[in-house]
From TrEMBL:
Residues of the DUF4429 domain: 19-73
Domain of life: Bacteria
A Pfam family per the record: DUF4429
Taxonomic source organism: Lactiplantibacillus fabifermentans DSM 21115
Name of the protein in its database record: DUF4429 domain-containing protein
InterPro entries: DUF4429
Amino acid sequence: MNKVFSFKREGKTTVTITDTNLTIERSGFLNQLQFHGIKQQTINLDSITNINYHPAKPKRGYIRLNTINGNAKDKNIIYFYGKNEEQLATELKAQLLSIIHSN
């Protein structure tokens, strides 16, 4: 598996995209994944059907992943906090779209 794209956000969120999966790991607590007790999730890229910006709090970066047979919708949202979060969300969305469309 090749690591295609990876970043760590202010010590809270690490996102790694390979040629087959998207993995999200969290160490912060200000996100809904922690409320579900989930610290890491892996999503198969083939299951992603659409990528949208989450409408809440537009000055922060939120991406909602719609997946085939996905979990509860809140578990498929990636959150970004801090500076340049919109730029980061835009970059991640572009990376995901390019990988998904190339397969």
